[in-house]
Amino acid sequence: MKILELKETFTASNDLDAEELRTYLKEKSVILFNLMSAPGSGKTTLLSRVITDLKEKVNIAVMEADIASAVDAERIEALGAQAVQVHTDGMCHMDAGMTREGLLSMDLTSTDIVFLENVGNLICPAEYDTGAVKNIMILSVPEGDDKPLKYPLMFRESDALVITKTDALPYFNFDMGKVIERVRKLNPTIKIFPVSAKKGGGMAAFEAWLLEETKVWVTHA
Amino acid sequence: MHELGIVTHVMKTLTDVAAENELTRIGSVTLEVGEVSGVIHEQILDCWDYMCTKRGPLFTGCKLILDTIPAVTYCSSCEKTYPTVQYGRTCPHCGSGETWLLEGNQCTIKEIEAE
Question: What is the value of ipTM here, to two decimals?
């Protein structure tokens, strides 16, 4: 037996898959957004709002990743958008290989944007590059303003943070200024969008960012 | 089950390495696991043994060795370092919260023994 020194990270093979997937997306002129959050933060409600608001402007499809069940995909399909359900079979996150499988099962010919709704979990998804072009993290007001302190990696890895359920601010001890300060300390360039998907407040700024990122990705193909 | 995902990725990388180097059997794999990487040793060892039985001759009887790397935090206020697990985010020398993890969250495949 001989010894081979490798010094490769655990995720080296996944990182390669993720780069390949981005090349594939570029060829197809499709942007992939990876949505990460805790369970119950309002990912599906936020997506439903975005799909309804942007229906006339872009063609949106959704990949729902769950350990089991298809309830989220059914909600998205009810809005007339293409949805595919991916089961991770007990795994706590999506990796680039699983994301590729999901994308290959979709019809991307007239699609501009694919949202990947990652497994509800603030730890593991941040460690795996899914092949997405941009990572979006969702934090809801009821979860509390201490989350950047508890789950720093997720905030560091994200390009945008959407703070959902701002209509519930009067009922919770949630210090918006403190959250923004804590997040900026971890990630000075992150975009922050406080929204209420239910009432519509703040959605325009988030949607404008989505459209701008899509334009940049597709036109530089 | 985060550990199962890690094992799957490590085995995929090693399968590629084996193909490049014309290896037919891997006797052992040494991983460097940081103290604050979140990897649970017992779980990764169990997942490893299970996956070895599934992944064919290359991994038959392959042993997993875990090297723990201590976590060290750097304080930018007093410019000293301290052990992360014992003191967390607050510097024990000066009480500052302006601290950064220097190392201890890595997960790397250090080396393999193969033929």
Answer: 0.78
